[in-house]
Design brief:
Shape: globular
Largest sheet: 6 strands, antiparallel
Number of strands: 21
Strand content: 15-25%
Helix content: 25-40%
Distance between the termini: 28 Å
């Protein structure tokens, strides 16, 4: 796990009533009353007092750059950034005048921190894959790109209101607000920057959003797709041009194991660059782009295959399911490219979801924790730099709520093809009227009314399930949907989330998100996926390996957001857009059926995993921490697990949310370390644990 952390204190460096008063500084750490120096463990100091900044974790040398204009004006860029040092210097001088957006417009995935005198600016990304957190501390503000270090610093307890919202309404920003699982630790929303001035904090928006008052500006589809191609190619090229890193050398042979098996068993990635190759359009596009760009995109000469130009393509073959056979065949055809070296990782019952419920503690909870072992097995066969197609669906696909956006813009004729596809999938002649009616209602529903409707449904426990693609589309045609786990929460937890929703609409000046419903829902879905990918990356972390998700880069997200809605809503739009991207890049031959989804494969795999691990999941919920916190009743969850394993049509995503949150709570409370040295009694987050009482929910928000 890698993160950066720093703080900005008042001129005196102390404030009565905020923890221990710190009276001075020493070498980049605050000095306490007993003379101890408070600084993060295992850190490297980027710059010192009075507003120090550290990088913590196994950062590569080229992933940290600090450029100075003078002693009081400097910029630190952590991550993979395509800007040269001169471009960083020009950007720093522009940021001195208050401009922020250009700091996020370079290719790659990175976090930029700018210091001008006592003003500190930390820019988050657009997707939320590189978030920024902050908390009041010692009369000023501490900030980091991870929430747990800040929770350790202030000994934060759990925010049960946030955990309830995470289960009841995970796709509703108004329910989650800017809170985190740790009470008092706040999150900077995607598309915003944290600005600190001598301890005082401000959250500034650097990205304009589509207006709700006027129609979106017309966009040419061809130029928009060309913009996506340019952004993707530049994102891939930035990663290929970065210095190559060879993992720690293999300590020696093991009887009966080849080099690849030995590396996987020891948790060592293959040197060089690789990519997922699932047969789907997103991973296939990245693999073909990386293999086709000039240079040597693959392994380093003298390591691995010995063919320096070949890119390692990893395909996961789930032996427990035959639904993805066509995707595997398409992946094999793509891997016939001579610039690709194809590796197939087979997965048995031990790699099903829920099969392995142990693992490292992540910064935050996420539903991907139940599948961490499955992904870890695939990534163990990957490269030191590994491309993934995560985020493509959320960045390119149209959320069903975008149908309401088309009605608001008087573009009814563009609803014909998506509605016809839903009608064909459902087989009912009533589908067009139902979908059109739901889209029309959403287009006429104010944002505040949408939140109030969800608050009422949570209080009255109205959770309707309509199976199939049509049911999912109808459920998505709303400003604020209930989460799949909401039905299993206690009345107290649902009431807490309802209060959070109602309070968000009653705040002074809270007139709505300033966006159309479809655009608002799409941004929320992208943020949630990026947050879960961050959890997955931490849960499956392999030493010396870096996962790259170019679809979550700022410039790629911007290019995807520029695509016209009339293009997005068409059936198969994502595959069609990426096919045009590859064609424009010189890749013309693709397997027949490329981009065709495999319906129901993820649901079938999740149900098979839950059925195989029913005993261990039931044991997990014998005395769950979620019940101690007042969020669920153990017997209700155990019954749901048994019913789902028996084949009842229950939302499996909701059970994944519950199991993942319970796992995360257990790992957090079993932790004994801290992220800091020099803190009194080695302070850590949630020092008192969870008290088994009712009424444990906090006010939140």
């Amino acid at each position: 796990m890698r993160w950066l952390v720093g703080w900005s204190l008042t001129a005196s460096g102390s404030s009565p009533g905020f923890g221990d008063p710190y009276g001075g500084y020493d070498g980049g750490g605050a000095v306490g009353l007993d003379g101890e120096v408070v600084q993060p463990i295992g850190s490297q100091l980027l710059w010192g007092d009075p507003d120090p900044l550290w990088a913590v974790g196994d950062w590569r040398p080229d992933e940290i750059r600090v450029v100075r204009a003078d002693d009081r004006t400097r910029i630190a860029v952590l991550g993979l950034c395509g800007a040269s040092d001169e471009q960083l210097r020009v950007g720093l001088l522009a940021a001195r005048g208050g401009a922020l957006r250009h700091l996020t417009a370079w290719s790659g995935s990175y976090t930029a921190v700018v210091q001008v005198d006592r003003r500190i600016t930390v820019c988050g990304d657009l997707a939320g894959a590189r978030p920024v957190f902050h908390t009041p501390w010692a009369g000023g503000t501490a900030y980091a790109t991870a929430a747990l270090p800040l929770a350790d610093l202030v000994e934060a307890n759990l925010d049960f209101g946030h955990l309830a919202a995470l289960l009841a309404a995970p796709d509703v920003p108004a329910a989650l607000l800017d809170s985190t699982p740790y009470d008092g630790v706040r999150r900077v929303p995607p598309g915003h920057a944290l600005v600190l001035r001598a301890g005082a904090r401000e959250v500034a928006n650097y990205e304009p959003v589509a207006s709700l008052a006027v129609a979106a500006a017309p966009t040419d589809a061809d130029s928009a797709v060309e913009g996506v191609r340019d952004a993707l190619v530049e994102a891939v090229r930035t990663r290929l041009s970065a210095p190559r890193h060879v993992p720690d050398m293999d300590p020696g042979p093991v009887p009966g194991m080849g080099p690849a098996e030995r590396r996987a068993a020891r948790g060592m990635p293959v040197p060089g660059i690789g990519a997922d190759l699932t047969g789907g359009p997103a991973s296939g596009t990245l693999a073909l782009l990386a293999a086709g760009l000039p240079g040597m995109p693959g392994t380093i000469l003298g390591h691995g295959t010995g063919a320096g130009e070949r890119l390692l393509a990893v395909t996961f073959n789930d032996l427990t399911s035959r639904r993805q056979q066509e995707e595997l065949e398409r992946a094999g055809e793509l891997a016939a490219n001579p610039r690709l070296h194809h590796v197939v990782v087979t997965g048995d019952s031990e790699m099903l979801p829920y099969a392995a419920l142990d693992g490292p503690l992540t910064d935050e909870p996420g539903p991907s924790l139940v599948q961490a072992a499955r992904h870890r097995a695939r990534l163990a066969a990957g490269s030191a730099d590994h491309f993934t197609g995560h985020g493509a669906r959320q960045a390119l696909d149209a959320n069903p709520a975008r149908l309401a956006d088309l009605l608001m813009d008087r573009k009814r004729r563009h609803l014909v093809r998506p509605v016809a596809a839903l009608t064909k999938a459902d087989g009912s002649v009533l589908v067009p009227a139902r979908v059109y009616g739901a889209a029309r209602r959403l287009a006429r529903t104010p944002y505040a009314a949408g939140l109030e409707s969800l608050a009422d449904r949570l209080l009255s426990r109205r959770f309707e399930d309509v199976p199939g693609a049509v049911g999912a589309s109808l459920a998505a045609l709303t400003w604020a949907p209930a989460g799949p786990a909401a039905r299993w929460l206690t009345g107290e937890a649902l009431a807490e989330v309802s209060v959070r929703l109602q309070s968000s609409t009653s705040r002074a000046g809270a007139v709505g998100p300033g966006q159309r419903p479809g655009d608002h829902r799409a941004r929320a879905a992208l943020a949630r996926h990026a947050a879960d990918l961050r959890v997955l990356e931490q849960a499956t972390e392999i030493r010396s390996q870096r996962l790259h998700a170019p679809f979550l880069d700022n410039q790629v997200v911007r290019a995807c957001q520029a695509l016209p809605e009339t293009l997005r809503v068409q059936p198969g739009a994502r595959a069609a857009i990426l096919r045009r991207v590859l064609t424009a890049s010189g890749v013309a031959e693709l397997p027949p059926g490329w981009g065709t989804p495999t319906p129901g494969s993820a649901t079938a795999t999740a149900r098979a995993g839950l059925r195989a691990a029913t005993g261990s999941v039931l044991t997990l919920f014998e005395t769950p921490l979620l019940a101690e916190a007042g969020l669920v009743e153990a017997r209700v969850v155990r019954k749901a697990v048994r019913d789902a394993a028996a084949g009842e049509p229950l939302p499996l995503a909701g059970l994944a949310d519950l199991v993942s949150l319970e796992l995360w709570l257990r790992r957090l409370l079993a932790r004994r370390g801290t992220c800091w040295t020099g803190t009194p009694a080695r302070a850590r987050a949630v020092p008192a644990g969870i008290a088994p009482r009712r009424g444990a929910l906090s006010a939140g928000g």
